[in-house]
Amino acid sequence: MVKGAEPVRDYCLGEGISVSELVEQMRGSWGFTAEKIVTGIDILKRMVSDRDCLKFLSFPACIVATGTRGVLKEMVKRRWVDAVVTTCGTLDHDLARSWREYYQGSFDLDDRALHRKGVNRLGNVLVPNESYGIIIEQKMQELLSSLWGEGVRELSSRELCNEMGRRVCSEDSILHWAAKNDIPVYVPGLTDGAVGYQLWLFSQDRKLKVDILKDEQEINDLIFDAKKTGALIVGGGISKHHVIWWNQFKGGLDYAIYLTTAVEWDGSLSGAKVREAISWGKVKETAKQVTIEGDATVILPLMVASLLSERKAFVE
């Protein structure tokens, strides 16, 4: 017997078990990552319900090519977050999937054969050329031409995302609901993708400019006007670092939830746990925080579904 410690309990799964019931059992089963997931759910619930907290959602583009796009959209639609920081590929996939289908595939397909057929493979998701580059070029050139005709000569990534959400993305998209709910979407690496390429292509004939520093000023103002800040950070790279970088100037995040599949031992930002960010002052020493190792396409739907099943536990 270990004095004061709770015993490990088995799952008891019956027909019709709800998500909230499953999560509650995870607290007692204490199975490795299960403990971290329930901790993450508890922190997310507190963060979402904290009216004094400016809430960031950060994620890479790859999961927008999967059904997890619907989970991200739901969080934005329900105003669980106040700002989004992501990569250019998110704009690509969110726009493309508003008009065309992506398809189920396999990690083990013959990539040479796919290339000859004009099909791109993103993990086990198949993206035909007509569902990506072709439709993005068509819609972006139409959008940019319209903006140019209206006298727009310069815009930030946030302004571009807003126009995309209002004009060329469907109601199933993240950008549509961000624009509708006036939630800013920032893309610090805007040129790294198909949408960024279309901006460059358009600018060859008409001198359209992108003001990235305007985005930075807005992020700065948001953070310094907030009493507290928090972030759900999926994956790594520029979208992760941009959130924690700016928050260090306000003393660090008050809430931090990392979801990652990357390893820590190679020193990468993507694999760095929350505790490393504490050493830099990017997350407060007193922050409610957790690092969850695992695939966001499995973990994130479970976390969000758990919150949805407890509507009284947070503010919509």
Protein model, in words:
The chain has 316 residues and is of the alpha/beta class. It has a domain at 51-100 and 134-296: Deoxyhypusine Synthase (3-Layer(aba) Sandwich). The protein has 13 helices and eleven strands. It has a six-stranded parallel beta sheet, sandwiched between helices. It has a three-stranded antiparallel beta sheet with strand order 3-5-4. Strands 6-8 form a two-stranded parallel sheet. Helix 1 crosses helix 2 and helix 4 (88-99) crosses helix 6. The model has no long low-confidence stretch (mean pLDDT 96).
CATH architecture tag of one domain: 3-Layer(aba) Sandwich
Radius of gyration: 21 Å
Largest sheet: 6 strands, parallel
What is the top-level CATH class of one domain?
Answer: Alpha Beta
**Rough outline:** globular
Mean pLDDT: 96
Q: Tell how many strands the DSSP assignment holds.
A: 11
Q: Which percent range describes the beta-strand content?
A: 15-25%
Structural class: alpha/beta
The percentage helix is: 40-55%
N- to C-terminal separation?
Answer: 43 Å
